[in-house]
């Protein structure tokens, strides 16, 4: 599968890792890719929906909502270089087996999130769409959305307009610097945001499809509180929701529940023991059968 997103400065894909599949199979080794939250848990949610909730799945929307407030005029909740490149790149999604590319931040939806409230969501390119299109065949549309506040977007557009998001090296006083890397050095370190971040995250997947011949809507998600995470492990919820799934993915491999030779993404394994482990270690899921779109 070839993505129209190839060549994006912030493009991440599985292709070079999938290329190791035969070598891992021959060596009798198992490789698990992307066991964070998204990618990672959201793919397990997709496998769970396919196994337990639907006969056929028509659409999947992955929604990453961070309702946290760190108090800074502008900061990113994870690596600024990756975050800003990802957000400023063109968006893309899959419809009827084809990649559709759109200008950055051009598709917006508003949702009412449990535990967070109303939030604006913007369509981005995200690598788990690639594997889901292969491993959950028949899905007509796959999309990924993330929340951004207007203040964040205004700062980002200003920085982009003056060239601070550029990845092209420039010469400054005889020293070669990359603007976005210099910006990263100026912004708050995401690892320091824990004590000052309040609010919650809500990350999950919305599905439409059929069950027993009838149309069905299903939403599975997790809510995580920034301050509760900080009290438990000394970090905010973005780090927590990344680290706990990585540990649970490793646990699945160590206890043999996910272990077969080759290179795999999360949705290719049984989701049940993984989601059970997530619930045990701080990331339980919730379910809803009601729409949450506002407009």
Description:
By secondary structure, the chain is an alpha+beta fold. Helices cover 33% and strands 28% of the residues. The chain contains 10 helices and 13 strands. The strands form 3 sheets. Strands 2, 3, 4, 5, 6, 7, 10, 11 and 13 form a 9-stranded mixed β-sheet that branches. Strand 10 and strand 11 form a beta hairpin. The radius of gyration is 19 Å and the shape is globular. It starts with 14 loop residues before the first helix and ends in a 7-residue tail after the last strand. Mean pLDDT is 90; it is low at 1-10.
Strand portion = 25-35%
Which stretches are low in confidence, meaning pLDDT under 50 for 5 or more residues running? 1-10
> How much helix, percentage-wise, in residues?
25-40%
Distance between the termini: 33 Å
SSE order in H/E notation? Answer: HHEHEHEEEEHEHEEHEEHHEHE
The count of helical stretches stands at: 10
In short:
This protein has 295 residues and is of the alpha+beta class. It contains ten helices and 13 strands. The strands form three sheets. Strands 2, 3, 4, 5, 6, 7, 10, 11 and 13 form a nine-stranded mixed beta sheet that branches.
Question: What keyword list fits this structure?
Answer:
10 helices, two-stranded parallel ribbon, alpha+beta, 9-stranded mixed beta sheet, 295 residues, 28% strand
SSE map:
Layout: H1 15-18, H2 21-27, E1 30-33, H3 41-53, E2 56-66, H4 80-88, E3 91-95, E4 98-102, E5 108-113, E6 117-124, H5 128-135, E7 141-147, H6 150-161, E8 170-172, E9 175-177, H7 179-186, E10 200-211, E11 214-225, H8 226-233, H9 237-254, E12 262-265, H10 271-280, E13 286-288
Parallel strand pairs: 1-12, 2-7
Antiparallel strand pairs: 2-10, 3-4, 3-7, 5-6, 6-7, 8-9, 10-11, 11-13
């Amino acid at each position: 599968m070839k993505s129209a997103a190839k060549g994006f400065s912030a493009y991440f894909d599985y292709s070079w890792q999938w290329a190791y599949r035969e070598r891992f199979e021959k060596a009798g080794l198992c490789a698990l890719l992307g066991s964070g939250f998204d990618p990672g848990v959201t793919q397990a949610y997709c496998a769970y929906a396919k196994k337990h909730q639907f006969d056929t799945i028509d659409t999947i929307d992955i929604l990453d909502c961070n309702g946290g407030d760190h108090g800074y005029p502008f900061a990113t909740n994870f690596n600024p270089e990756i975050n800003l490149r990802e957000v400023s790149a063109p968006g893309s999604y899959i419809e009827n087996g084809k990649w559709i590319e759109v200008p950055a931040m051009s598709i917006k939806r508003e949702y009412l999130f449990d535990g967070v409230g109303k939030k604006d969501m913007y369509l981005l390119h995200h690598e788990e769409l690639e594997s889901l299109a292969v491993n959950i065949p028949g899905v007509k549309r796959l999309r990924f959305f993330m929340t951004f506040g207007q203040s964040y977007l205004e700062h980002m557009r200003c920085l982009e307009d003056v060239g601070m998001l550029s990845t092209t090296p420039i010469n400054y006083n005889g020293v070669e610097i990359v603007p976005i890397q210099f910006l990263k050095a100026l912004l708050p370190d995401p690892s320091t945001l824990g004590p000052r971040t309040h609010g919650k995250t809500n990350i999950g997947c919305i599905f439409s499809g059929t069950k027993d011949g009838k149309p069905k809507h299903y939403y599975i998600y997790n809510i995580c509180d920034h301050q509760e995470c900080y009290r438990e492990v000394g970090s905010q919820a973005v780090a927590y929701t990344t680290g706990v799934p990585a540990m649970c993915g490793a646990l699945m491999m160590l206890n043999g529940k996910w272990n077969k030779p080759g290179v795999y993404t999360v949705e290719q394994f049984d989701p049940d023991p993984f989601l059970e482990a997530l619930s045990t270690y701080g990331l339980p899921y919730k379910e809803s059968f009601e729409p949450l779109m506002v407009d």
